[in-house]
Amino acid sequence: MLFMPTQLALYEEMSTLSARMVEAARARDWDMLIHLERSVAALRNTLLTDGDDTDLSSNALKLKSELIQRILADDAEVRRHTEPWMEQLRKFLGSNARQRQLEQSYGANS
Fold first, then answer.
1. Is the CB of residue 11 less than 8 Å from the CB of residue 60?
2. Coil, strand or helix: which one is 88?
3. How many angstroms separate the Cα of 50 from the Cα of each of 16, 17, 64, 65, 73?
4. Residue 109 burial by Cβ neighbours in a 10 Å radius (0-12, 13-18, 19+)
5. Would you state the torsion angle of the CA atoms of residues 29, 31, 37, 38, taken in this order, to the nearest 10 degrees?
6. What pLDDT, on a 0 to 100 scale, did the predictor assign at position 90?
7. Angle formed by the axes of helices 30-50 and 58-106, nearest 10°
8. Buried residues in 60-98 as b, exposed as e (16+ CB within 10 A)
9. Pair 19, 74: CB distance under 8 Å
10. What is the DSSP letter of 27?
11. What are the structural domain ranges in the chain?
12. Burial of 31 (0-12, 13-18, 19+ CB in 10 A)
């Protein structure tokens, strides 16, 4: 079980990293975004494993809620920047897959 300062420190670190993810998404720095997302995922997994908040005070629970709301807002902002890029990538990969299917079906040199 995590103690209050440790659990809140994990949420604070996740919030800091999620804010950096927004900056990376705005800058289209996909490598940094991926690196930061992996760091957030590791923290999230730690919280899922040991994140019992039954011992948190009402003030700590309020802070935890505020941090989660910030993280969710940052996630929405990251998605706002990444979804158009992901759609372009899907179209690109889809057209490449169709091209390969056509080449396999009709031959590349027909």
1. no
2. helix
3. 20, 20, 15, 17, 24
4. exposed
5. -170
6. 79
7. 130
8. beebbeebeebbeebeebbeebbeeeeeeeeeeeeeeee
9. yes
10. T
11. 4-82
12. exposed
Q: Using the predicted structure, report yes or no on whether residue 1 has a pLDDT greater than 60.
A: no
CATH match for 4-82 among 1.10.10.10, 3.40.50.2000, 1.20.58.380, 1.20.1250.20: 1.20.58.380
What are the tens digits of pLDDT across the range 3-52? 444 788 999 999 999 999 999 999 999 999 999 999 999 999 988 887 67
* Residue in 76, 71, 84, 81 with CA at minimum distance from that of residue 25: 81
21 closest CA partner among 39, 3, 7, 8: 39
* Cα 24 → chain centroid: 11
Q: 63, 77, 67, 52: which is closest to 16 by C-alpha?
A: 67
pTM assigned to the model: 0.73
Q: In this predicted model, what pLDDT tens digit does every residue of 51-86 receive, in sequence order?
A: 677 777 899 899 999 999 999 999 999 999 998 877
